[in-house]
Every structure is written in C-alpha cells, then in structure tokens.
Design goal:
Shape: globular
Structural class: mainly alpha
Helix content: over 70%
CATH architecture: Orthogonal Bundle
Oligomer: single chain
Number of strands: 0
Number of domains: 1
Largest sheet: none
Order of helices and strands: HHHH
CATH topology: Helix Hairpins
Radius of gyration: 17 Å
C-alpha cells in the first residue's frame, strides 16, 4: 500500500516536472499564484481569507494541469482542426479562467475586509 502511494506520487511529480518544462502558461500561473499568496500573507487581516487565496491558487494550477492534459490528448488524437477538438480545448481553457475568477472574488472579499477594518 505504501509502495503504491510512492509510485503514484512519482507519476504526479513526473507530470509536474514535464508540465513545468514544456508549458510556459503553467510557469506564468505558478508565479502569479506565488505572488498572490505572498501578498495575501502580508496584507490579509484574516487567516480564512488568506487560506482561500492559497487554496484558489492551487485550484488555478490544477486547472492548468488539466488544461495541458486535455490539449495534449486532443493534439495526439486529432492533428487536424476539428470542431470537437476546439470545443474540448476551449472548455479546458475556460476552466482555468473560471478558477481565476474564483481567486479574484476572494481577493475582492479580502480587499473589502481590509478597507472595512480601517
């Protein structure tokens, strides 16, 4: 059981490393998330809102990993331009955008909280 967990962690680490190496967008999201988390840690008066900022940052990275996986499998399956391939890729991209909206909404709440405490 423990061995299986370590094997699966190896797959996860491999996926992270490969995505980091090949996907500029993942690296861009990563640095945005790190910046967002650090700013929240320094300015947030509320641990709950800080935790939400961090959690939504992880969700953005997870969404981008799924987006990368969808793009890779679609490109392998159908190299020509196809309506369903476009639909799949656009939906996966939209998932990343929707998670970004979640992070933005948490930041709005955090900023309202800061302004309200002054």
């Amino acid at each position: 059981m423990v061995r299986l967990i370590f094997v699966k962690l190896g797959y996860s680490f491999s996926g992270l490393c490969e995505t980091w190496r090949t996907e500029l967008s993942f690296r861009q999201w990563f640095f945005l998330v790190i910046g967002s988390d650090l700013v929240a840690l320094f300015i947030s008066p509320n641990i709950t809102l800080t935790t939400l900022v961090v959690a939504f940052g992880f969700l953005i990275l997870a969404a981008e990993l799924i987006n990368t996986a969808v793009e890779a499998i679609v490109d392998k399956t159908t190299p020509e331009i196809h309506e369903l391939a476009k639909k799949s890729k656009d939906a996966a991209s939209a998932m990343t955008f929707v998670t970004l909206l979640g992070l933005v909404s948490v930041w709005v709440g955090l900023l309202i909280s800061i302004i309200g405490n002054k």
